[in-house]
Amino acid sequence: MTAPVVAAPVVRSLSSTRGTGAPTLVSAAVLTPEREQWRSLVRDLASSHVAPRSAGMDAAARFDPELLALLGDTGLLGIQVPRAYGGRGGDLLDVMIAIEELSRVDPAVGVLVDVQNALVAATLLRRGTGDQQRLHLPRLATGTVGAFALSEQDAGSDAFAMSTTALPDGDGYRLRGRKAWTSSAREAGLFIVFAQVRQEEGGTAPGRVTAFLVERDRPGLTVGEPARTLGLRASSTCDVVLDDVRVRQQDVLGEVGGGDLLAVEALDVGKIGIAAQLLGLAHGALDAAVAYARTRRQFGAPIATYQGVQFPLAQLAAELRGVRLLVHDAIALVDHPDPAERMCAAAAAKLLASQVAERAASQAVETLGGAGFTDAHPVERLYRDAKVGTIYEGTTNMQLRTIASVILGGAR
Ligand SMILES: Cc1cc2nc3c(=O)[nH]c(=O)nc-3n(C[C@H](O)[C@H](O)[C@H](O)COP(=O)(O)OP(=O)(O)OC[C@H]3O[C@@H](n4cnc5c(N)ncnc54)[C@H](O)[C@@H]3O)c2cc1C
Hints:
Largest sheet: 8 strands, mixed
Shape: globular
Structural class: alpha+beta
Number of domains: 3
Order of helices and strands: HHHHHEEEEEEEEHEEHHHH
Distance between the termini: 34 Å
Oligomer: single chain
Bound molecules: flavin-adenine dinucleotide
């Protein structure tokens, strides 16, 4: 899976999917046989192993451990991790295809795979030392879940106003504080924790934001009860309490004081992952609406024959194509030397994906009529799952702020 991100177009017949279900909506720019194979592998796994579990995981607000083990066994927890470390040796587009296909069925599974690959493993690959990579990447690739602990109760959009501290202690530091909203924290075995390095408790000198690799079994680290959320219920979102957790110098990820830049860079990739998740969610909603519209009959004919049902779905199908191109554009720009370019591309993809996902889920509920308002159909869950797309990894206003700072000046 080492093909370039935008490979030469390979025109392939889509006739097998035409007229028999929801549109395939695959961009020709990335239709290589290898990509198609990867997409259908993940799609098959999603339909045979994720779909049957989704309603139950949502109702129980718990990720099925058997499914987690399966994700590890099939390489979905280490998509970009090199083969030498037990991963699949894929690239960022492979990650995004997997997130999209899983989210088409269950966005809660998509977000776990997103955080694992696009935030935690990707950051280790970009900024980890050789020793850090040798230690952690094989574990991530084979089942250790990763989490990204940046936000705090009083430091959300303004994340670097965090109060968690790292105080010097011998050849390392002691972490003290409470991170909030950490996705996958209940399942996680490895956390990237952000803290302010200070010389002393309560000192007035500004802290230096720094990222640390912290294993779950470090004494002093505890994970709170998952928040009870509107959607994405199978994905745990917890506080992570750090009560004098001892970390070593070699657990610093990147540079001391370089944690803010590292986080921004990581979130630029993470936002593309969220855009892919929301794209999958929107696609799943459209799949359900199309399938229902074809079979539901009113006034003596399938409702799909009425223009009032067709056109909103056609509009969404067009918008999905646009969002997919934005995701691919952001992937292509991820290593652009001008940070403003990659920030703007990631923010635009996430912003528009979140808007299309909300509309798609809402339209799907309407297309199913009363049935869509019940939990007998997955669109009810997708409708709840869609909302957080406008909040996490930067709210809608934060994406607009990023884009505004690029087009109006300030980011360069
Ligand atoms: C399900 C879920 C999972 C999450 N997972 C993670 C995770 O894994 N790791 C992690 O670190 N965090 C995670 N988060 C936290 C998430 O990133 C934050 O919720 C988000 O950044 C917003 O912060 P906040 O909730 O404190 O809202 P606030 O920052 O308080 O914002 C509230 C409102 O004010 C607006 N606002 C704030 N400042 C401005 C401004 N300057 N201009 C205009 N509008 C503004 C915002 O747009 C928003 O509408 C998660 C959150 C959720 C809900």
